[in-house]
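Deliverable D4.2, example record:
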Amino acid sequence: MTLIMGLVFVWFIFVILFSKWIRKFNLYLYGICIVIAAILFTQETNIVNMGYVGLSFFILVMFASTLSQGTIRKKLMGNRAELAVMGSIFSLSHGLKYLIFAFDFTFFWRAPIYFYIGIASVVVMLPLAITSIMIIRKKMKGKDWKKLHKLSYLFYGLVATHLLLINNERFLFYVILFGLYVIYRVLALIQKQPIKPKEKIKIA
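Output generated by the structure prediction step:
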């Protein structure tokens, strides 16, 4: 928990300090992330291969919209796409590492359910990540992009299920984390519901 939230804090500070540069040089940042992920991919165990780096990016992406209006929220929301792409790069590395392990040791066909849910989350994540790259996003119609990115909620749900089914000491942390996000989304949905005007009482 400390490691994951520590990474979230690092990305948070990074965005606050360099928000304009992140969007301007996003392709270079993606390249750096790919190189780092590729180098660490060759190692047996590290924070990238364990999925912690990818998760930390997505925690920031998830909760950016929960902040109250202000400069901090504006900077985070303005860089959500870039954060999501970087998170996807590291999450893809995490997924590929375990997928290769599964095939190497004939683990794939007898893996626990959370393994398959994790693979499903990566499959859902890929089109979201690709269409978050600004060059590709600009070629899409706004309505089509928004419709596709409603799948982000499915992605978050799959990630939450994947993590909660893994029996480890972070179970309570994940329950609180995703529980808070669900509560926020429900409250936001309720607030968006139009208020029906009261009918005027006719006096005979």
